Amino acid sequence: MTTPSSFNPTQAPFVAFKRAISRRRFLAGTGVLLALPLLESMTPAFAAAAPSAVKPRRMLGICNNLGLVPEFFFPQGKGADYKASPYLELLKQHRKDFTVFSGVSHPDVDGGHPADNCFLTAAPHPSSGGFRNTISLDQFMAERIGHLTRYPSMTLGVNCSRGSRSLSWTAGGVMIPTEEKASEVFRKMFMGGSATEIAAQERRLVLGQSILDAVGGQAGELRRTMGTQDRDRLDQYFTSVRELEQRMQMSKEWEK
To answer: How far apart are CA 158 and CA 213, in angstroms?
Structure first.
């Protein structure tokens, strides 16, 4: 045993300390504010196994108000050994990561398709004259885990009746409008700076350039400090951003 009086620091095991990358770090350029994905190097070595190092939990709610063909969705059998339906067979590689519930309903939620306003609230009788909605499940979760991510919640939709329908509602029963334009979501997530800088960056996108061009130098410096696994993950992230840019431009061409 080594006593405090006989301890020799030169004989102690060598431990290399490396400053962890902040989880809130951004790559910033003119008109661009690009958040980083969760990387291994964002966690200090001695904290890697700590509960605080666990990836932020997220919730995604999707309402398909046109429904599904039951026999194509619900599996046969019960428990973990169920026989997958045609729809679930498409997700077979993720089978261990999800659970299918049957027999779940909102018996007092009536009113046809507009009742999707209550999909995440279960507030009864939305078609009644004095109806008042309540907090939706996504906002309930955002109050508890929203601080772990850059945006506590995002409400997206398609053809939401000009702002009269949404899945997200506050505790006071106030509707949170949906964002229906992919370009606006892209702007919110990946762009920053003055209005002039953002407009200039949007013009570059129209010309086929990428927001990644504005942060290429910073990205290169960051990659040199990373291990192989983090570099691969960062490259995958940048590739997905670029693919999203290209899909948006194709969508705009079809809209003309």
So the answer is: 31
Tokens 């996504």 sit on residue: 138
What is the pLDDT tens value at each position of the chain, 256 positions in all? 445 455 454 444 444 445 555 555 667 666 667 777 777 776 654 444 444 456 778 889 998 878 889 889 999 998 888 999 999 999 999 999 988 888 888 889 987 777 889 999 999 998 888 889 999 999 999 999 888 877 889 898 887 766 678 999 999 999 998 888 777 787 777 777 677 777 777 777 766 677 777 777 777 888 888 888 888 888 888 888 887 777 777 666 554 4
DSSP character at residue 127? T
Contacts of 50 (CB under 8 A, 6+ apart): none
Report the length, in residues, of the chain. Answer: 256
> HEC states along 93-137?
HHHHHCCCCCCCCCCCCCCCHHHHHHCCCCCCCCCCCCCCCCCCH
Q: Which helix (H) or strand (E) holds 86?
A: helix 86-89
Q: Report the C-alpha gap between 137 and 120 in whole angstroms.
A: 5
Q: Which amino acid is at 145?
A: I
| Distance, CA of 89 to CA of 63 (rounded, Å) | 20
Q: Is the pTM of this model over 0.85?
A: no
